Amino acid sequence: MTPAQLSTTIVDALSALVEQGDLVLPDGVPSEVTVERPRQKGHGDYATNVALQLAKKARTNPRALGELLAARLKAADGVADVELAGPGFLNITVEAGAQGQVAAEVVAAGASYGRTTTLDGQKINVEFISANPTGPLHLGHTRWAVLGDAIGRVLAAAGAEVTREFYVNDRGVQMNHFADSIIASALGEPKPEDGYAGAYVDDLAKAVEAASPGIFALPADERRTAVRAKGYEIQLAEQQAQLDSFNTHFDVWFSELSLHESGSVPETLQRLKDLGHVFEDGGALWMRTTDFGDDKDRVLIKSDGELTYFASDTAYYLDKRRRGFDHCIYLLGADHHGYVGRLRAMAACVGDDPDQTLDVMIGQLVKILRDGQELKLSKRAGTIVTLNELAEEIGVDALRYSLARYPADSPLTLDVAEITKASNDNPVYYVQYAHARTCRMLANAADLGMTLPDLETGFDPSLLAHERDGELLRALAEYPRVVASAAELREPHRVARYLEDTASVFNKWYDTKECRMLPQGDEPVGPANLARMVLVVATQTVIANGLGLLGVTAPERM
To answer: Torsion-angle region of residue 342: left (phi > 0), alpha (psi -120 to 50) or beta?
Structure first.
């Protein structure tokens, strides 16, 4: 019995009490009831405070309502006992057979276990990284590469239709600086003052020449345009390859330049004028964002006629909404903290409720230590530690998991030695090893001729009656609720912490001799062995599914 199933049982019990006239609820019976795992042993398998929540509406006291509900629940299928505690808490013990059935449900669902309909019908755009196409991705982008991807995965698991989007900043003076830097490298000239430096620029110059022989001999203006286009093409392809190898995949690569070429920006400006949210001052065109809580109004067109990035940002948001997205999630770095107010005001200016359509997440910086020294990054100075280099040194799984297990808004310092060591002190190793252990157990079972029983006719869930069996089953039953919570709060670290707790529960179960899955010595394979085989497969399934939501592999051996 999962928490969701027990919630339904409690709702049914309340409905029966109302129908019988034993209980009056003017607002009706709630559609669901909060069910939690008690913190202390001896307080049953699950607990609920529903009697405290409904007593006032029912014009009774919590204990009286608790007594009524407890009596009803004791007769419900799958409930072994109900104890009324304190001012009106209900501690519920589930029958071993009902609890054990969770293992069969997990195995039957397989890769779909944990998926919910919490966000069904929602179409969500998740935009993250959105780096300039002027150099390789580095640590400054790596945290969002992990979190943005993981947020997309948990949202999809909760039933949303998700599009992961990379906004390519391919318009602006930085693209000319980029082209000029490549040209200077190819011609052996000093890099421009506002240009890009580093070995990657020299490599790009060689790649551009190889792809377009003679390109650097073109007339100056024609050369810059051609080099900018080819360099952009090569660098963007490299960024895409970097992310693919890091297990981060985008559905859409959206070009900023396309907004201007398609006429979206002029259309957006006209819409803002029609809504009365723009004004002219000092020869510039402004959006009156202070009307919607921004700390100052924002320039759309400068006095020299040049469009600002904010004009593009507004057109881009409207483009997303035109494409049918109900909700737009932006993942931005710590240096973009000031964008929260302006983006919310921008959404309000175009007629949306930002509480309903917009979510701006700000991520804090990450420091990587090697031998006690911080790895320094500077894209323009050329001392870049790229995402590829980090993944190669640390490992994709270790790097992704280590970044995913913390909230986005917490500053983070990672030590290379700590997150790569093969030790139970290393969370990613600990969780992956638990999965590998289930694989080894099942391989040993196969060597003994054991096969997974038919879940309908060969599996007796009541045999999973040991205290450790119950603890593991309750942990597995919690997984769908963890996924739903991670999606609603945009916090995939909840999945990682859940996996660590579940791996701990599994290891304690594994070390309990009364819970052995394999028969000992000459013992024949019995129903209890087969029941625990189902439990091991269920554990394997949940760990693999959870790791998958973080974009981390579930190895069969370590």
So the answer is: alpha
